[in-house]
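Hey,
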Amino acid sequence: MEELSGKTAVITGAASGMGLAFAEAFAAEGMNVVMADVEAGPLEVEAKRLAATAEVLPLTVDVSSLEAIEDMHAATIDRFGAAHVLCNNAGVGGGGPVAECTVDMWEWVLGVDLWGVIYGCKTFLPGMIAQDEGHIINTASIAGQLCFTNMAPYNVAKFGVVALSETIAEETADTGVNVSCLCPGFVATKIADSARNLPEDIAVKMPERSDEEEAVRDAILEAFSTQKPPAEVAQLVVDAVLAEQFWIFTDQVFQGRMAERHAGIIAGSDRPVLGELFAAFTESQG
């Protein structure tokens, strides 16, 4: 799409972090904005603020529910007549070692991070194809390119989002619909505090954190808070829509490890050495 003004963007996970920045960026381009999030309180606050400068439709949506996504689509069409940009952005972090991670945790992470994206694409794509215009931005992760230890559900979900995005790009070639796969590294969001949105039936089963575990959690949250501002990622996304760009990487920190992984695959070498979550980032910081 060469022109965004007057068209409609739908963003999930829009009450905070990158999703909120996407909503702000598309609103600044003159677009109508559908802001969807599972957290009703923050959504109400941010939607009211953004509504001062743009046409905004706030919707409380659990993206792991197909019915909820279908309702979001229906509400979008009813209010604005069409959807031109879809950001499947809502996501949660969670997991643990494969031998220890509960099935409940697997289902929660995959439900939001993978099925939520599948449902969004499945529901909005036919209309975009019919109108010969549209752009889908699927938020994967650098964890969709490189696996991190103790994060199996998240890794599996994000690799799935990458595969889904590549498949859609092939299937929609020459239709007027484009796809971008966003693979952010470390961005200043609250994803490390995803447990705040754990379903109650899972939350009650979670063991209490020890003082040491609380300290680690606080350190991770602090680390994320000092990383790339979501507004910078949002500008990359707007630019990608205008340029019909598929891959969106937020930094170059992990490029070397990605190259090593790909070389190992081609060579059929022994198992990859994954390392810890922050290893590559720490190395890049000296």
